[in-house]
């Protein structure tokens, strides 16, 4: 396939893909259904044979996302996150450290659960503080969102894009900390977090209003916390389990572990409440919309890959980089930052993972991980540039709107731009020094 052959299936597949992306951006409320319709079209046009459909779906990724969402829903219901936030607030002296502490706390939580869920858990605490001090909650909520987006990439279970990268490289939970004998993506994110936190301290250096201690939130059930800790420990343990020879089990072990823990939590809740309605309320909290979107994207990406689009894009980037690995790496990182500022990073990463694989092969890199890690860093952190770049940002703007605060793009970018540039630049340099040299 090549760009000059206008009769090739490449152009038809590319055209459908571009239209799909435009529709995803224009009609965000319906993007899962748009992606599903596009996936069906790719199958109907035989870009992806129907017999290969089930093989195309990454069941490990889909199960991990669904299971984690279910456990998080139980965790939120238990009120434990609110109690943890209250304890942090009790220890800080003023508003500056309250904002920074909440951002750090949001980051820690977001390393293990969904970014949007993190914002929903911690936002009420920030709103409560702001009301008592009679100040605007806008800065603190924006910083909570920024920190949750940043730290989501730190672990295998922290963000959908991390789960996708883990699936592409067959990474375990431990691999995010130490991979192939070198520091993993966790340390990239943490160094970026340190740089970004210093930026926040500078921005809020004049906010020294004293705080009134908050009444501690009572925890209703400690079992979801045990489940969450068990999930992390079992995923770590799974990293050391030898292969069984059973293909489905070996490939989907992480997803099966998380789903099993979610089912344990649901059974416990059913026994405790004796109510299928209460159980249904928890199950409804799973974001089926995102799961459908991601499953459809797996099909779409397989379709454009079969049509030759992925290889063509990889060739363009390789030519733009002049065949130089550092130049290609730089393009991948900063192009990802730019795109993710306006495009949801889930479909972007789903599209670019096979592009990166093709680029690594074309460049003959012995260790292509520098491109993969650069992609994750740029795509995950780039969403912090604008209020529409990440789902957590959109959720934050929605919370503030309900409270009567309309956040203008420039207001958001006042915090988002320096935060993002500090974190991405730090990660960009560290990844190349460790993996590119």
Q: What does this molecule look like?
A:
By secondary structure, this protein is mainly α. The chain has one domain (9-436). 73% of the residues lie in helices and 1% in strands. It has 20 helices and two strands. It has helices at 9-26, 31-44, 53-56, 59-77, 80-91, 95-110, 115-133, 138-151, 160-169, 185-203, 223-238, 247-273, 276-284, 288-307, 309-320, 325-340, 345-363, 369-382, 391-402, 409-436; strands spanning 178-179, 182-183. Strands 1-2 form a two-stranded antiparallel sheet. A hairpin with a 2-residue loop joins strand 1 and strand 2. Helix 4 runs parallel beside helix 12 (247-273) and helix 15 (309-320) crosses helix 17 (345-363). The longest helix is centred in the C-terminal third of the chain and has 28 residues, at 409-436. The chain is globular, with a radius of gyration of 22 Å. The model has no long low-confidence stretch (mean pLDDT 82).
Search tags:
20 helices, globular, 2 strands, mainly alpha, 437 residues
Please specify the SSE layout and strand pairing.
Layout: H1 9-26, H2 31-44, H3 53-56, H4 59-77, H5 80-91, H6 95-110, H7 115-133, H8 138-151, H9 160-169, E1 178-179, E2 182-183, H10 185-203, H11 223-238, H12 247-273, H13 276-284, H14 288-307, H15 309-320, H16 325-340, H17 345-363, H18 369-382, H19 391-402, H20 409-436
Antiparallel strand pairs: 1-2
